[in-house]
Design brief:
single chain, about 290 residues, alpha/beta, two-stranded antiparallel sheet, 9 helices, about 40% helix
Length: about 290
């Protein structure tokens, strides 16, 4: 059966507990606007038995994007080349067009892998270091990757630039693409007091491959935590609307990693993404009416 590879429209980050509902409801109205899925390759590489059969079903029915969890692009240890070779084979075997990772780090020699994603100091030295590791990753995979802007909660005191300047410097130095997380932009803007709209104004639109939308937890008035366990709030929806107007419409998916409701309820947010995309496209599509 031919695989599907066109990443477009509105999508969903796949959690395994959603699979039975997804397979049962495929082709039914609740899933009408679901156009692609995202998986973490770490959860599916070398899958066997039931999981292998589920993966075969997924790639036969939906375009798939891969979003990695453990590459640790900003970490101090050498890149895990053996893992990247597995990713390369996995992407090839299932004809998956996109592989993205976080612009952060999650491991070091002393502590191994850390659950949280840690911020990279925003310095010129870090730009060159991370960009070299992204280029090495692209050389091994023999394809471009995209890096995702991460949420963070402590700013490194030795930083020499702001977040958007750092991101743009890495994109240029590595010549890679951007996986734009709208919720992370909003979370960081509240936690560190910057204008999220001005942040988006500086994004290089041509590098965006797709986007994320998610909910977060408000701990204090000026402290948000990117939990992916809550409904998306109105300011984040408004930021996505602005992103489409400013940067053009890009594929966008919903992330929900905890407190996961039934699939029809999740699809309400996926449908809202699709509606915003359609509205933005209608605004920017020139009229083809007759000229008098």
């Amino acid at each position: 059966m031919a695989q599907l590879t066109d990443i477009r429209g509105a999508g969903l980050g796949l959690k395994r507990e959603l699979l039975p509902q997804l397979m049962q409801q495929y082709g039914q109205p609740p899933l009408a606007q679901l156009q692609f899925l995202e998986i973490a390759p770490e959860n599916w590489i070398q899958a066997g038995g039931k999981y292998a059969a589920e993966l075969d079903w997924l790639v036969a029915h939906y375009p798939i994007a891969c979003h990695g969890l453990c590459l640790s692009l900003g970490g101090p240890d050498p890149l895990n080349v053996g893992f990247l070779q597995q990713v390369k084979q996995f992407l090839s075997d299932f004809e998956i067009p996109l592989y993205t990772e976080h612009l952060s780090y999650c491991s070091d020699t002393a502590n191994g892998y850390i659950y949280d994603l840690l911020p990279i100091p925003f310095t010129e030295e870090a730009v060159k270091y991370v960009a070299q590791r992204i280029r090495q990753t692209q050389d091994i995979l023999q394809r471009r990757i995209a890096v995702e802007n991460a949420s963070f909660y402590v700013a490194a005191p030795l930083s020499e630039m702001d977040e958007i300047s750092f991101i743009n410097a890495v994109l240029a130095e590595a010549d890679c693409d951007l996986h734009l997380d709208i919720n992370n932009v909003y979370v960081n803007s509240v936690n560190f007091g910057f204008d999220p709209y001005a942040f988006l104004d500086q994004i290089p639109a041509q590098r965006i491959v797709y986007g994320h939308m998610a909910g977060h937890l408000q701990v204090e008035a000026n402290l948000l935590v990117d939990t992916h366990g809550e409904a998306i709030i109105d300011p984040v929806w408004r930021l996505l609307t602005y992103a489409y107007a400013k940067l053009g419409v890009f594929p966008t998916l919903l992330e929900r990693d905890s407190h996961i409701p039934p699939l029809p309820l999740l699809m309400q947010e996926v449908d809202r993404i699709a509606t915003l995309q359609q509205q933005a496209q209608a605004i920017h599509t020139p009229s083809l009416g007759k000229v008098a």
